[in-house]
Write a structure and sequence with these properties.
The chain is an alpha/beta fold and 177 residues long. Helix content is 22%, strand content 38%. It is globular.
């Protein structure tokens, strides 16, 4: 068990299982993107660990960019997506893969996908480590998902609680007292 600020967390997904699922997801991407040279857009801050591990398994040429959006305060979504760091390159006529740590309500992707399409992206797909289907508030087609999880608050492997807890190599779930 770990404690972050005022919350206790217990083990949820061990780092070996994460590594296996990331590699399996990379194999799907390898099959679909061989010879295409897409741009991967890793969403900061949470997706940095997942993106680093994912690209190590990719066998096709690709570029990677980072973008940052915010829709959370503490453990709750605000429902509003703010762009904090945008793209520095053109994506016109390029395949784009958004690399996200977790999709829960889908609000960020609902805002981001049309933005990328309006900038002339040839295609836009999402590759996410985790998805909470039970929490989705918008229809969303996620072609590349490593794991679906229940609607629980988690930390570790890049995911945080109010800025803390990203450093754990496994994922932990909040323990209700």
């Amino acid at each position: 068990m770990i404690t972050i600020k005022d919350k206790h967390f217990e083990p949820f997904i061990h780092h070996e299982q994460i590594a296996d699922r990331v590699e399996a997801l990379a194999q799907k991407l390898n099959a679909d993107y061989q010879g295409r040279n897409p741009i991967l857009i890793a969403i900061l801050n949470g997706a940095f660990m997942f993106a680093a591990d994912l690209v190590r398994h990719l066998t096709f040429d690709h570029e990677i960019q980072f973008a940052k959006f915010s829709s959370y305060e503490g453990m709750d979504t605000t429902g509003q997506v703010k762009t904090l760091i945008g793209l520095s390159i053109s994506i016109k006529n390029r395949d784009v893969i958004i690399v996200e740590d977790i999709i829960d309500t889908g609000t960020t992707m609902k805002s981001l996908i049309p933005q990328l399409q309006s900038q002339g992206a040839k295609s836009v797909e999402v590759a996410t480590l985790l998805m909470k289907p039970g929490k989705l508030k918008v229809p969303l087609n996620v072609k590349y998902c490593a794991m679906e999880i229940p609607n629980e608050f988690i930390v570790g492997y890049g995911l945080d609680y109010d800025g803390i807890g990203r450093n754990y190599k496994s994922i932990y779930v909040v323990k209700e007292d």
